[in-house]
Amino acid sequence: MNTQESIIEAAIVLFNVKGYQGTSIRDIARRANVNPANIAYYFKNKQGLLEECLIYFFEPYLSFLEQETEKLENDSAQLCLIRAIRKVIYFQSKHYQLARFVWREVTIDSQTSREMMSLYLKKEQYFFTTMIQSALKENKAPVSISMIVIQLKGMLMMPYLNNLYVREVWGMIPQEPYFAEKYFHSIKTWLLVLMGTEEENASPNIKKLSV
């Protein structure tokens, strides 16, 4: 891990535990075992480091959605949507602290979150809407696309904003390997029902994504 990566990793941990406002440049430098001048060199200031952390999360996150959206011409829309959700859930579970910090930051009405809404979250909304719209056309399900997008978004964020509640209900925490598969299976079942498909009648490729 190079100096720049070490700083980002240290920032992710501290932003998650202490919050952005409660974390200083010196805290990050100490954890990363670097000189504070290194942070200024790579990121200019704490705001620049925050933006880099958001890029670190959203670039791969959105790439999963974009890849599956581009496959709509060749694959079933149901399959593309469910594959995209599986990738996102596993990515967030693997990068638990980063996901928790980012989704918490999104809920704060700040200039940074508003800029994110106009950039990353608009893209996310577009990809989900496109895949869901195509999947519903396949099954002719009379449901609100916008409501499904909102509900799906809430489900993907919830374990990281309310991890104690997840632990209370399921007896596990989002960073545990088994959680990702169980949570994915639950969302997949919910989506299939919404789209009028019984799980046993789902395509073989969707069944392969089961637990």
Please specify the SSE layout and strand pairing.
Layout: H1 3-18, H2 25-32, H3 36-43, H4 46-70, H5 77-94, H6 96-106, H7 111-118, H8 120-139, H9 145-161, H10 163-170, H11 177-194, H12 204-207
Helix pairs in contact: 1-2, 1-6, 3-4, 4-5, 4-8, 5-6, 5-8, 5-11, 6-9, 7-8, 8-9, 9-10
Structure characterization notes:
- The structure is a single chain.
- Helix content is 76%, strand content 0%.
- It is elongated and about 60 Å long.
- The protein has 211 residues and is mainly alpha-helical.
- It folds into two domains: 1-44, Orthogonal Bundle (Arc Repressor Mutant, subunit A); 57-207, Tetracycline Repressor, domain 2, CATH 1.10.357.10.
- The model has no long low-confidence stretch (mean pLDDT 88).
Mean pLDDT: 88
Kindly report the name of the CATH homologous superfamily of the largest domain: Tetracycline Repressor, domain 2
Principal-axis shape: elongated
Corresponding CATH architecture of the largest domain = Orthogonal Bundle
CATH class of the largest domain: Mainly Alpha
Radius of gyration: 19 Å
Query: Roughly how many Å apart are the termini?
Result: 34 Å
Beta-strand proportion: under 5%
Number of helices: 12
Report the sheet with the most strands, covering strand number, pairing sense and barrel closure.
none
What is the count of distinct domains? 2
Structural class: mainly alpha
Topology pattern, helix = H, strand = E: HHHHHHHHHHHH
Number-wise, the strands total: 0
Which fold does the CATH topology of the largest domain refer to? Tetracycline Repressor, domain 2
Instruction: Give the low-pLDDT segments.
Output: none
Helix coverage percent: over 70%
